[in-house]
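Morning - iron/sulfur cluster inputs below, output right after.
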Amino acid sequence: MKKILQDYSKEELAEFIKPSFRIKQIWNWCYHKYVTSFEEMKNLPTAMRAELDSQFTLTPLKILTIQNSTDGSRKYLFELHDGHTVEAVLLLMKEKEYHEDGTLKHHERYTVCISSQVGCKVGCAFCLTAKGGFVRDLSPGEIVTQLLMIKADNDIEANRRLNIVYMGMGEPLDNLENVARAIRIFADPDGLAIGAHRQTISTSGLSTKIEKLGKMDLGINLAISLHAVDDKLRQELMPINKAYNIKSIIDAVRNFPINARKRVMFEYLVIKDLNDGLDAAKKLLSLLNGIKAKVNLIYFNPYPGSPFQRPDPKDMVAFQEFLTSRGQLCTIRESKGLDISAACGQLREQEKKEN
Ligand code: SAH
Ligand code: SF4
């Protein structure tokens, strides 16, 4: 099988590709011009193009389907070389804006949500990705190419800044080695040039891996999927809580190196009549005491057969106001792409049913 070019850093490629200035040229074609074959790399010698083509593929993923949301978000289902599928979502965070005189104020602002595994071992009760079980880890190149193909498909210029969140399918810290490699490849100024400070790992709370990630000192942002404030309920929702309870997560977060201007995000999936009361808000506040945190409340997004219900907007707002009035930054996640069920795993499940 051919090697995936996007699996490798520039330094690693130097082992296969000589002289090394060729690597920058190849990266320019791949990461800035979005070409998908070596044949198109016109400044490389013909023999070299053929040699590279015999060793490497540039296209480890294939777009299977795209769903457009009315809010401008787009959800992609990708097929991997072994036929498995993963999804990624282009989220339009802010529309393009113009000044009154017609000149451009700013381009569209995008965040791309990408997957780190096919399926997931964590098995959360509310999550569709969990239903299919775990299949395999994604390689660094399979992670990187999700974003690359989305940029190409939407004609997003190479130098346009965007943010990455590892909030698609899978538990990124369960595939830490490959995710860390992807983070570095994304960040390389000769490639996509998306610094680690523009990337956020979302984790269900593998405390020991949070510590390991912290020691790598990549400069990445951290988001914790907390979802419950007492261990009993959290264990029911997220079986992983048996191995890593709430205290162990909070302790790991306290030791995590955070950029002075940043906060750790705590995601709190709000489920009707389960964790939407002010008693939970109060407990959350005391758990976060002394941590530079931002709470992000998420509406549970129901799917056919899901055992839980979407919370009442009134309760969401009351929860939020309880926290903000006590000085805790708290936002309610806009349900971007709700009409295309942009929550993790939902498009993939739909495809499976239709086939
Ligand atoms: N495994 C990591 C990252 C992927 S999940 C993690 O759990 O953090 C990304 C987010 O999608 C999590 O915060 C998760 O709670 C949320 N999610 C899963 N199922 C959902 C649903 N049905 N409705 C809304 N959000 C959901
Ligand atoms: Fe895995 Fe995250 Fe889904 Fe839990 S919410 S099953 S950790 S992908």
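Note: The two ends are 28 Å apart (CA to CA).

O.
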